[in-house]
Amino acid sequence: MLDESTYRRIKKEYGFPAYIFDSDRFCENYRLLTEGMSAAYAPYRAAYSYKTNYTPRIVSLVRSLGGMAEVVSGMEYALARRVGNAPENILFNGPCKGEDGIAALLDGACVIIDNEEELAAVLRAASAHPECVCHTALRLHVDIGSGKPWDMSRRDNGLRMLPPFGLPEYHKGNYTGTMEALNAVSTYIKDIKSKYVVLMLGNLYANIDLTVPMKQHKRSGAEITAICADRCVDGSRLRYVTGDDGFVKHMLIKPRDESKGVASLEAYIINRDVLLRLMDYSHEHNLYRFHKDAIDYYLANGGKMGIYVHHGYSAIIHSVDSYYHANMDMLDAANRGDIFPADRPVRTKIREEVSTYYGEHSSSLNCLVADNCIIEGDIENCIVFSGARISAGAKLKDCIIMRRCTVGENSELNHVIADKAVVFSAGTVLTGSDKLPIVVPKGIEI
Fold it and tell me: What's the Cα-to-Cα distance from 288 to each of 184, 275, 315, rounded to whole Å?
């Protein structure tokens, strides 16, 4: 370890400024890191970032400790190989890999794909070299950036992204239920400083000002507040019936009579201590489900659950059919106003592109069309994403056409969902229905 005498000796022999590397402290830090992370994420291996400090002595030490090499350039990759790393012990990362990244891929290294352009380059290389086994990984959340528009750039508070898996005993693939998923990340939830926790589905489609139900939750004395809708919601499985005191008395699961109670959006404001109690109960009794196990137990034991009724458009996307209809609902100006109110803008990735071109003989009736499209045919009740081209003579009705799709001349599409970069050849005819739209996967040519 670096002590006072060692410090003075280095100063005397080499003079200052000097870069001092304490290998004993480094090895101890590495051991503590791998032991701590392995306890929560099994299996686990650390990868050392060469761009931090690629001094050969340091990177060789990492290799001797069992660590991987994380490189971002051809020079760093060559160094990693020179100090004894096998290709399979190297991760090639970074946003500008170019030919060096492809060379490392074909050499046997794992290349972390950063964007669609890199994915295309990797696919081309794999096709050109079928004798090679290509090892790749995908960078997640590539569109988040610094996270500032999503309130994720703070040191404290703000949003946090929880890992998909937590404690080792929960590494079993897909979770059986929400309580199992929550218990898998219980260490994170226990560290939450806030008194209240908001839980909601990832497939809930609504724009809700959470400050309003939060104020009601605090004022009502409820320990849990269920956010519900003022109308029937496609995909909602639950309805809550309240008593004269305003608190929930019954939870109805898939009721036949939709006149009873209010439809749940499966979004909740929960006192943190109550959530932890329900997690402990579920863990101790080997229970996994949020509603049938935890909430049913809570209500049966006199728990105080209130409801907040959201007045505005909402949907739960649980199938292709519900996805299709939620999109079609946005053609109604009132529904659009509920989802995209001026005082609560929706943050998304911005594409600043040229305006859409409409041909002399084209027509567009009740459609939402993004920038950078070429519309030369006829579209009605359609949603068209950026970069799409609708050729002359083509007729589209009740369709969702995603980014960079091409519809050939004289084609007819009805009730079709086309994923990105689909190409419909001239004269293509596809007809789905309101209940069963046709889905064309990404990149398909018809």
Answer: 11, 14, 25
In a 3-state reduction of DSSP, which class is residue 241? strand
pLDDT in tens, 138-170: 877 555 555 666 565 666 665 656 666 555 555
Summarised one tens digit per residue, pLDDT across range 72-128 is 999 999 999 999 999 999 999 987 788 899 999 999 999 999 877 888 899 999 999
Spell out the residues 6+ positions from residue 198 whose beta carbon is closer than 8 angstroms to its own: 210, 267, 268, 269, 270
Residues 271, 189 contacting (CB under 8 angstroms): no
* Residues forming beta bridges with residue 262, ordered by sequence position: 240
Six token digits for residue 6: 């060692």
- The average pLDDT across 341-351 equals 81
Tell me the two tokens of residue 248. Answer: 């929930």
* DSSP SS3 for 348: coil
Are 355 and 366 in contact by the 8 Å Cβ rule? The answer is: no
Residue in this structure with the two tokens 């760093």, named with its chain if needed: 76
Q: Which residues partner with 108 through β-bridges? A: none
Does residue 424 contact residue 409 with C-beta atoms inside 8 Å? no
> Which distant-in-sequence residues (6+ apart) come within 8 Å of 12 by Cβ?
none
- Amino acid symbol at 160: R
Handedness of CA 214, 220, 223, 227 (dihedral sign): negative
Name the residue among 303, 231, 217 with its Cα closest to residue 262: 231
For the beta carbon of residue 23, count every other beta carbon within 10 angstroms: 10
* Dist CA 265 CA 276 (whole Å): 22
Whole-model pTM?
Answer: 0.67
Instruction: Read off the amino acid at residue 5.
Output: S
Whole-angstrom distance, CA of residue 356 vs CA of residue 281: 56
What residues have CB less than 8 Å from 11, skipping those under 6 apart? 18
Burial of 133 (0-12, 13-18, 19+ CB in 10 A): exposed
Q: Is the model more confident about 2 or about 258?
A: 258
Among residues 96, 99, 34, which one has the least CA distance to residue 68? 34
